[in-house]
Amino acid sequence: MSPRPARALLCAALLAGSALGVTAPAFADDAAITGHVTDAATGAPVQACLSATSESTWETVDTCTDEAGAYSLPAGAGDGWVVQASADGYALEYARGHYDWNSADRLSSPGTADFALVRASAVHATFREASGAPVPWAWVEAVDPVTGETVATNGADDQGVLDLSVRAGRVELHVEAGARDVWLGGDGTRAQAQVYTVPADGPLELGDVALPAPTRIVGRLTDATGAPVPDVCAQALAGGWGEGCSDADGRYAVEVNPGATQVQLYSRNPDFASSWLGGSYTKASAATITAVAHQDVTVDQVVPRAARIATRAVAADGSPVEGACPTVYLGRTTENALASGDCSGPDGTISLTSVPATGVTLSLTSPRGVITWAPGRAVQRHATVLQPAAGATITVPDVRMLTGRSVVGRVVDAATGAPVPGVWVTTAYGPRMGGPDGGHAVQTDANGQYELDDLSGNSISLVAWDMGYDYAPDWTGDAPLESRAVAVHLGATPATADFALQRGGVVDATVTKADGSPLDGSWVVDAYSKDGKAYGSSSDLYPAGDTSLTIRGLPDAPLRIRLQDPESGQVFWYGGKDAEAATPVKVKPGQTLHLTITQPAS
C-alpha cells in the first residue's frame, strides 16, 4: 500500500474514533506539538490527520484535528520531530509549508506549527519521441518556481503516460528520461523553463509532450569474420544511462550525455570477452568517443573471442569448498575482467566464461570473506598470471583456500585508560557512509576488547572509529590520519593492535556571505586533510538559511574546511576559494575552535 492511501485510512480511523468518543491513551511525557490546520485559500478550519516522527528514535505519534481545526500531537520533549498533515482533497504537507520529508522543518516539542493546506490536483501528460513513439519510464519532478523546492515527483509508465499528483499552484516541470535532462516549456534549460499553473478544480492537461532526441552511441558488434555478436552490452563510463545490449544482428545503442566518454562492452555472451570501444581490454587504452547532443554517433566494433577457466576450490585437507566465489582481473591489476561464473558448488568446481584471452589473475572469496589468489596465495602480487587462449579452456590446479588471519586488541581512553565500548574497529573510515561500508568491521565490547577475523593478505591498516564522534579516529601506529597509519603484520597467530583514543576536537562556526546574510541554499561541509581524506561528522548548513555549523570528532592534525553547494557544485574553503588558499585549522583533543567563515565574493 502506498503512503498516501495508508495515511488516508489512518486519518479516517482516527476521525471515526473521535466521533465515537474514543480517547487517545495518556502519555507520561505531556509535551506536545500543537497548532491549527486551515484551508490556504479560505482560511476555514480543515479536519485533517497529522503525524509526527522523531528522527532520533523513529517513534511516530498521530492525531486528528477537532472541528475548529486545532490539533495536539503527544510528541515527547526534544528536537527533530517531522510533522505532516493530510486531509481529503488536499495535498500532503510537511511543516512548515513543505512537500517532502527532506525539506520539512524539524520541530521541537513542546512547540507549535500551523498548516495552511493547498488543494490537491494533478498533471497529466504523455511523453513521446519526435516520431510519435512513447518515451517510457520518464521521471518527473514538479518544482516551486520561487523557492526551487521539489513539491511532487512521479514516473511515467511504460507507455510514457504521466499522472503526477501535486498541490495546486505554480510549478516548473523537470523531466529525466534516460540521459535526457529537460525542463519543459522552453529550450530545455532551467533558465527558460515555463511556469505552469496547476488548477485546483481539475488536472493540468499537457497532452502529448515531445522530448528532444536522445544523445546516443550506436553501432554493430561482430566477430573477426563479420558475423553479428548478440548479447554484448554497451555501458558509458561517464554520463551514460543504463545499457544498450546488441540484438541478433549485433546492433546496439546506448544513451549518453553530450561530450567525450568511453564505452565498455560488457559481454553476456559466453563465447566473447568484455572489452572497450576501440578494441582494448583495459580502460586506459580505450577509445574516447565524442557524443553529439541529440544525435547518433556510430561506432562499430569487432568483439574478441573469449577463453574459459575451470578450477576447483578445496580446503587444506583437499576436501571441496562450497560457496567460493571467483573474480578474474586483468594481469596483476585491480581492473575486473568481467568474466562470468557462479560460486563453487558442493563439489568445489568453478567454471568461468567470457574470460579475455590475455594475462589474468584469479581470486576466490570464501563464504566468510577470505580472499585466496590462485594457486593459493594471500596477495595478488604472488598470484600466478594465467595465459588463456581464445576459444580454449585453461584448467587451473585446485586452489587451496586460505584460512583468515586475525587481529585482536583493546580500545581505551588515552587520558584515563578506561575501556571504550561500542567503538568500531574497521578497515574503512568514511563519516558520510553512516557506518563501516565495505571491508571488515567489529565493535568493542564492554571492556573495550575486540577480535577481527577472516582477514586476507600479509598486512593491514585498521582504524578505531567512534561513531558518536566524542573521540577522534585513531589508526594503527597511533596515527591521527589515515595517511600516517602503520600496517599490522598478519601471520598464522593473531596479531595485536591496541588503540588509545583522544577526545575529538570540535569546530563551531558561523557561516555567512560578506554582508552577513546566509548562504544561498544548503551546503555540505567537510574537514579534509592534505591528502584529500574527510574527517569528523558535520552538521552541514541545512536547511537553506542556516548559518550555524558544527564539526565533531576531529583528529589533532591540520585540516582544511570545504563547503560545497550540492545543487550547483560551487565550492569554497575556509580562508580561500580553493584548497591551496585555504587556512588550515588544528584543534587540540577535547577543545572547541570557534570560527567565522565568510563566502568569498564571486
TrEMBL record:
UniProt signal peptide: 1-28
GO molecular function (one): carboxypeptidase activity
Keyword Iron-sulfur: no
SUPFAM superfamilies for the chain: Carboxypeptidase regulatory domain-like (SSF49464)
Keywords: Carboxypeptidase, Hydrolase, Protease, Signal
The protein, known as: Carboxypeptidase family protein
Native organism: Oryzihumus leptocrescens
